[in-house]
Amino acid sequence: MTMKLLSGDPRLVCELALRPLVLVFWSILGTKALDNGLARTPTMGWLHWERFMCNLDCQEEPDACISEQLFMQMADLMVSEGWKDAGYEYLCIDDCWMAPERDSKGRLQADPQRFPSGIQHLANYVHSKGLKLGIYADVGNKTCAGFPGSFGYYDIDAQTFADWGVDLLKFDGCHCDSVTSLADGYKYMSLALNRTGRSIVYSCEWPLYMRPFHKPNYTDIQYYCNYWRNYDDIYDSWESIKNILAWTTDNQKEIVEVAGPGGWNDPDMLVIGNFGLSWDQQVTQMALWAIMAAPLLMSNDLRQISSQAKALLQNEDVIAVNQDPLGKQGYCFRKENKIEVWERPLSNLAWAVAVRNLQEIGGPRSYTIQVASLGQGIACNPGCIITQLLPEKVQLGFYEWTVTLKTRINPSGTVLLRLDYI
Ligand SMILES: *[C@@H]1O[C@H](CO)[C@@H](O)[C@H](O)[C@H]1NC(C)=O
Ligand SMILES: *[C@@H]1O[C@H](CO)[C@@H](O)[C@H](O)[C@H]1NC(C)=O
Ligand SMILES: *[C@@H]1O[C@H](CO)[C@@H](O)[C@H](O)[C@H]1NC(C)=O
């Protein structure tokens, strides 16, 4: 067992030029995130979009339309069902909450039928539960669903949200006619939020809308935003999860190094507990979102969720990996025989490792890892305690640097491990 084996093997195709970058840039870049004291670990909460979309029909679907009732019910359940205690704190409204027109003073207003008590009342309610409220607006002339955009109103909108007691803004990028307006708008809104004096987490989609025209400047993005979407909207499907993970590995050299306390890459919502993913695929989403230091924003129906999905989403060991205070995003470092191996450095010299079975035929597959190859060769030197966290918790015990670790992974599933340094 030599270090040469670790770096010279041509099969390690997703092994990165990231290694030198990781070592050189992590400490430097970690300090340039948006300086509002927020999102020091990835934001956790609930966001309505993937599950409830733009459902405006409260006559036909009173329980699924975008209304204050929906958010009040979710707030109640976030507390009574243990979500808040698990760390899910931000209850977030997405598009379609607005009335079609601004008020006479140019302020955004909630749809009067669906939010008869108004957003300030909802914020008070959410705060009374010990939770925080997120809202949605758009940098351009209209939101994606066609409601009033914030272009020309950035200061008014920032102040309106602050006056209402909003704690997070998801700022979308639809209906914006140039990349200059896009970048200027995202920056301006960040400063406008700051000027209100209220602590408001700022969620951007700037790189997602920028990328088709111009390589995103992540130095700028992390300076102005608390987290940012890079890639397409998530769907309730395995295809969608796979595309997000593939995009992330393809672009990790660019995006991994910019993540850190105060600023995170956002691979979009957790769809665990819905309709589209098998159990193993849900495990894969949870494990990889933990490795990627992703915001954990569930989009599901907390009134109807299986106990299995709930236990996965509330798994404290996995959440601890996601929320690790070191705040470094993980990366894929090996891909061979339809297996991907990802790792993430954690505080106290610990590491998380995810082994993904990309094969979607057959049964569980065994995969043997040289312990010495994990954590840049140092995670288990001279030894470590390894715990399997997913798909279920298993204490695997003490491993020396020189031995191998055998895992067994279901098709489209993932085994998530934690390595604690001795
Ligand atoms: C909004 O619309 C106005 C009028 O058409 C246009 O001048 C402006 O550039 C648009 N702004 C954005 C961000 O697209
Ligand atoms: C505004 O920005 C300054 C420095 O850039 C920071 O110290 C302050 O905490 C920010 N305030 C809010 C409310 O985000
Ligand atoms: C990115 O933005 C920063 C800060 O505005 C600037 O200093 C830097 O030159 C930009 N990088 C590129 C490649 O344009």
TrEMBL record:
The keyword Signal applies. Gene3D superfamilies: Aldolase class I, Golgi alpha-mannosidase II. It catalyses: a globoside Gb3Cer + H2O = a beta-D-galactosyl-(1->4)-beta-D-glucosyl-(1<->1)-ceramide + D-galactose; a globoside Gb3Cer (d18:1(4E)) + H2O = a beta-D-Gal-(1->4)-beta-D-Glc-(1<->1)-Cer(d18:1(4E)) + D-galactose; Hydrolysis of terminal, non-reducing alpha-D-galactose residues in alpha-D-galactosides, including galactose oligosaccharides, galactomannans and galactolipids. It is an enzyme of class 3 (hydrolase). Residues 327-413 form the Alpha galactosidase A C-terminal domain. Keywords: Disulfide bond, Glycoprotein, Glycosidase, Hydrolase, Lipid metabolism, Lysosome, Signal. It is found in: Lysosome. GO terms for biological process: glycoside catabolic process; glycosphingolipid catabolic process; oligosaccharide metabolic process. Its EC number is 3.2.1.-. One of its GO terms (molecular function) is protein homodimerization activity. GO terms for cellular component: extracellular region; Golgi apparatus; lysosome; membrane. Belongs to the glycosyl hydrolase 27 family. Catalyzes the hydrolysis of glycosphingolipids and participates in their degradation in the lysosome. Homodimer. This is Alpha-galactosidase. The gene is Gla.
